[in-house]
Amino acid sequence: MKSIESLRQLFAFNEWANRRILDSFNDASPQSPQALRAFAHLLIAEKMWLVRLLRNEDTTGFDFWQASTLDECEALAEENRRAYTELFRGLTEEGLDRVATYKNSKGVEYRTSFRDILTHVLFHSTYHRGQVAMAVRAEGTEPAYTDYIAFVRENENPRGA
Q1: pLDDT tens column, 36-66
Q2: Nearest Cα to Cα of residue 124 among 3, 17, 5, 4
Q3: Which fold is adopted by the domain 3-155?
Q4: Is the pTM of this model over 0.90?
Q5: Alpha-helical regions (H) of the chain
C-alpha cells in the first residue's frame, strides 16, 4: 500500500475516533472539563497544522489550549473533516514530499514534509484521545472506545462481499 493510501485510511480512522469522542460527550452529562479541554486542544492543533501546511502560516504566540464548548468542538471537528478530505482529494504520493515552512507557537521556524506533518497530526490526536479517556475514567465513567482495530472491524467488508 502506498503512503498516501495509508494516510487516507488513517485520517478516516482519526475522523471516526473524533466522532466517537463527540458522541460520548453528547451522551454524558455533565462532560468532564479536563476531557473537553484535551479534546478541544486536539481539534485546534489539527486545524492549525492544516493551516501551516496550506499557507505556511506563522503561528507564533498562538494559544493551542483555548477553552472551547462542546458545540465549538462539534463545529471544529466538522471543519477539520471537510478540510482534510479536501487536502487528500488533491494530494498525490509525490505531494507528500512537499515541504511546508512555518513558525511554531514559540516563533521557531521549521521546514517539514507534508508526510511527516500528517503523520504527526495522527499521533498527536491519538495521544490526546488517550488523555480524554483517562480524564473520563477519572470521573467514573467509561470513555469512548477509539482503538484503531475497532475502526477496522466496523469498516471492513465481509469476505465475499
Answers
A1: 999 999 999 999 999 999 988 889 999 999 9
A2: 17
A3: Four Helix Bundle (Hemerythrin (Met), subunit A) (1.20.120)
A4: yes
A5: 3-27, 33-55, 70-90, 114-138, 148-155
